Amino acid sequence: xxxxxxxxxxxxxxxxxxxxxxxxxxxxxxxxxxxxxxxxxxxxxxxxxxxxxxxxxxxxxxxxxxxxxxxxxxxxxxxxxxxxxxxxxxxxxxxxxxxxxxxxxxxxxxxxxxxxxxxxxxxxxxxxxxxxxxxxxxxxxxxxxxxxxxxxxxxxxxxxxxxxxxxxxxxxxxxxxxxxxxxxxxxxxxxxxxxxxxxxxxxxxxxxxxxxxxxxxxxxxxxxxxxxxxxxxxxxxxxxxxxxxxxxxxxxxxxxxxxxxxxxxxxxxxxxxxxxxxxxxxxxxxxxxxxxxxxxxxxxxxxxxxxxxxxxxxxxxxxxxxxxxxxxxxxxxxxxxxxxxxxxxxxxxxxxxxxxxxxxxxxxxxxxxxxxxxxxxxxxxxxxxxxxxxxxxxxxxxxxxxxxxxxxxxxxxxxxxxxxxxxxxxxxxxxxxxxxxxxxxxxxxxxxxxxxxxxxxxxxxxxxxx
Length: 466
What we know:
This protein is mainly beta. It has one helix and 32 strands. The longest helix has 19 residues, at 7-25.
């Protein structure tokens, strides 16, 4: 017997239709992660080339490796990588099958050329592709016996430098300027490492994560790895798993750390922050979490994302001073080991990111945005008030004003474009004097001084007289 359709039933039915329509057509949760269809679930690396952010490269293995171990051991053979040219919707066939592909990077001088650090049959070395990773000369290896190169990094300026961080060796730093025809270890380290990073504001500075429990720390070089300065105050006795210098604030450095107990088991510690270029440190976020990678947005570096083990993914929208956890949509118990932020334009709703889950594959986020956004309305206001004397002989004083505390960089160039001076420092809001002394005894002539806060750059023309 059919029930009569009453006015009340009609209202309930219409409400249900409205709810279904709303669920189908309203935007999904802005912090919801969705899984991509990748082959293997033991993720080794997620990479988006600087020249084409729609490319997505995922290397993985069939079986899990305990990356928390003091010296992780990879299997005799690996499972290669796949790439997508449409943000993970469709995938190539497997490339470099039988290799564990630790890291991939494009040549800073030629984006058609890719390099891969690989591991197979207990050997680590470099391989090269000349067609954006589609084919590889597997019989022509470079820089053999480099152990396990965890990470590769280069500068976008195209100076040819490529840096590597190597594990299971005391020569944890690798550098090449000729496409890995030759490799150098630098000098004076005697550590292993899982991460190397370069800031955008300088063409010679390199940061290395010291993956040693007794003589670890964050190492900084200002000469492309020839000499190093160790910063460990506040992170004594910790093992540094990753490091990331801020491209927006030259003095701000972030790292992820753990420690090892007597049985050499890993004890997670969290995200640490330095405000003095890596010399002293304090706990910043994700206390008690494994932190394996920290990445910043390529063109808007106030946005950061960190892979924090079983604590999921953490994000920041103010250069790492405030963090929030984002794990909605990730599987229960997900252990996040990798993150990548493609160079897609941020919106008012935040950024998109990729995450690698140990044993769970690769996920893509919805728009990630924290509940505390940095107010950067005034951050692009940098006023040059005066320069005196003009012209100058042995020194000059530049007076400038900023409405809020921020990092300011000073770069001086001759008329041939050669950089003759660089300095970065943190200034509070207000008026400041920057005094430059001619310690180099430069020749008389015209010079350019660039003053920048990362968002705005002022150009000052100078004239030097005897």
